[in-house]
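Example 9 (inverse folding). The structure is encoded as follows.
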């Protein structure tokens, strides 16, 4: 927390009070939008008020574009577009493209050859928020520059007058390195037992994907198979984003939110829209991940966040989870919570108690004996949440003789 306070006090000293969001007292300032038209989340707490209507002219396709989740990996001419690794390359060299135009290109290439209306693109890339067509125009123009494409004689992105855009490059699909690797992991092979635990996780996942925010502890002795179970479970999920973070034994207070920051970093690398959404609704979190922003962006963030207190980080992240999972379910894995910092435990408590719909499943492993025996902060939070049925739990027993013999 000290680190966060230090970063913020630097900004609090700034005389530029450009940031006028919801302050710590809950006062709401005028709306602002960033370069890509995201409303700053701190400037409106009412997400219903920021929903932009989907394009009604083509309702069936609108859901296709925004909900289609298979990552794009295609080649066209000298270009290679690799969505999972967030890379656009030309002749094998990475091209600098900002996350929003990149996401736009992925949305277009995902339906190569088809008209995608402006409304569909705004929904797919800007996530159902009120933004004007001009942000789309700007992003298209950036993309054309990156692709050296000409609007009047397009080779890749064609404008369909007053309606939208079409990707017209001759895209060839490329097998994705990560999916190939996933088939080859050891996770899928030789899992002993755990049928009940897996079916418990599966049932919880069904509820989570239907919108029931789920906090699920996987507890047991050291080496009993907590990580193996979680790995096996998530390796078989499809159409989901996954962020993982590891707690490590810390001496002293340790870095607040370490496993969450790791997981967010992983999510940002896999999905460029995560970074944009953090910028919009969870800027204090983005500030903790400096390698995802330029020095200039960080300076702007610091100015905007002058006076913002780290206490609001749980609320920011809750909003991030709710909004992100409107488009895609999310599994957050936090390993070895018995070593967690206090802030992460408090965050879990807050997230579990949040109301409303969210397609989030938070899986957290911990060594049961360490939490029960020592007066770990997780002990009280776990008891409270279980009492109010706000969390679920799988406790793993050591293997039976039959299971090992099988
Ligand atoms: N169901 C299983 N089938 C086969 N091997 C297993 C199973 N569960 C665990 N193992 C093996 O046991 C070892 C320890 O498992 P794992 O790392 O998952 O335990 P853990 O409970 O996460 O331990 P820790 O408390 O140290 O985090 C690993 O080598 C793993 O491959
Ligand atoms: Mg483990």
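The amino acid assigned to each position is listed next.
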């Amino acid at each position: 927390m000290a680190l966060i306070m230090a970063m913020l006090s630097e900004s609090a000293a700034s005389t530029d009070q450009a940031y006028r969001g919801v302050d710590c007292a809950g006062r709401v300032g005028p709306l602002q939008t960033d370069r890509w038209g995201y409303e700053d989340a701190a400037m409106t707490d009412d997400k219903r008020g920021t929903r932009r209507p989907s394009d009604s002219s083509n309702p069936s396709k609108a859901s296709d574009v925004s909900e289609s989740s298979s990552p794009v990996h295609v080649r066209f001419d000298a270009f290679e577009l690799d969505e999972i690794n967030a890379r656009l390359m030309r002749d094998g060299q990475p091209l600098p493209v900002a996350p929003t135009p990149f996401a736009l290109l992925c949305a277009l290439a995902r339906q190569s050859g088809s008209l995608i209306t402006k409304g569909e693109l705004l929904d797919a890339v800007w996530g159902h928020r009120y933004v004007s067509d001009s942000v789309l125009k700007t992003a298209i123009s950036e993309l054309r520059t990156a692709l050296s494409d000409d609007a009047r004689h397009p080779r890749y992105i064609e404008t369909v007058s007053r309606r939208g855009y079409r990707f017209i490059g001759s895209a060839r699909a490329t097998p994705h390195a990560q999916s190939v690797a996933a088939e080859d992991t050891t996770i899928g092979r030789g899992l002993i037992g755990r049928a009940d635990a897996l079916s418990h996780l599966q049932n919880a996942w069904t509820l989570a994907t239907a919108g029931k925010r789920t906090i699920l502890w996987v507890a047991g002795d050291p080496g009993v198979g907590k990580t193996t179970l979680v790995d096996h479970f998530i390796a078989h999920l499809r159409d989901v984003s996954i962020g993982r973070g590891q707690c490590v034994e810390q001496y002293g207070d340790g870095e607040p939110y370490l496993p969450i920051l790791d997981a967010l970093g992983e999510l940002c690398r896999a999905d460029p829209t995560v970074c944009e959404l953090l910028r919009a609704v969870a800027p204090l979190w983005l500030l903790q991940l400096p390698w995802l922003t330029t020095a200039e962006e960080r300076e702007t963030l610091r100015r905007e966040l002058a006076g913002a207190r780290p206490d609001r980080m749980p609320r920011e992240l809750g909003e991030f989870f709710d909004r992100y999972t409107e488009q895609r379910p999310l599994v957050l894995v936090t390993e070895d919570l018995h070593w967690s910092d206090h802030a992460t435990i408090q965050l879990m408590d807050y997230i579990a108690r949040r109301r409303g719909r969210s397609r989030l499943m938070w899986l957290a492993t911990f060594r049961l004996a360490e939490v029960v025996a020592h007066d770990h902060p997780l002990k009280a939070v776990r008891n409270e949440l279980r009492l109010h049925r706000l969390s679920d739990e799988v406790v793993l027993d050591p293997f039976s003789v039959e299971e090992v013999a099988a």
